[in-house]
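haha ok so turns out i had the wrong file open the whole time. this is the CORRECT one, sorry everyone. sequence first:
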Amino acid sequence: MNNPIYDTIGINYNTTRKADPVIADILYNLLQPKNNGKYLDIGCGTGNYLKALSDKGLDIIGVDPSDTMLKEAKEKNPNTTLIQGKAENLPFDDANFDGGMGIFTLHHWNDIQQGINEIYRVLKPGGQFVFFSFTAKQMYGYWLHHYFPEMIRISGEAIPSEEEMFTIFNNAGFSNIATENYFIHKGLTDLFLYANKHTPEAYLDPEVRKGASSFRIYCIEEEVEQGLIDLEKDIETGEIDEVMKKYGNDMGDYIFYIVEK
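then structure:
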């Protein structure tokens, strides 16, 4: 089974994408892990958060469709079970897990409803699952929109709205659904798309952009080239401060969905 997107992005992915300890702590606390519980990481990628949560004592299995990602995940997690597969067709028995997590994975699923149905199926009653994701509404609040409007628009179309996600969760059978907004903290070590909210000069580095799928698969090359020219000019003149101020908001930069079976 191949995943062309992440088989490509997975090359040197860990140069800029490392598990952030603050986010790992949030995930752990939201999961409310049980002693001797069994957990699932869907879309585990190169296993960064899989390792971070395993180091906190979780017995956790990783699932990902990408060969490239799983090879790196195995190097980090040699004693962890890793399975090649997709959320829409999980190779597990019903009511098999006490909980789990999915980090920046929903927007890459072919059928989000089917994937959420599968998660509901494999969770035990009372099982808690946490997703770390984003909404188009949040993305339009990124100052990146000033420089890369089409990239932000296309990226936002890849993910359901918060209201639509609630409907999807309800359709799968989840009734206990909550959200928690996340604002980019300074010193973030996992350089996903808006991670450099406070350090705009970082986006001029091609290695930083490589780790974010928006700059790899949801962008228009000509727009990115012009946007980078404009961004560099605004950084030099100080105009970037006004742009960033204009996009200030209290919506949260990203969102955690917490669902319980």
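DSSP finds 13 helices and seven strands in the chain.
again sry for the mixup
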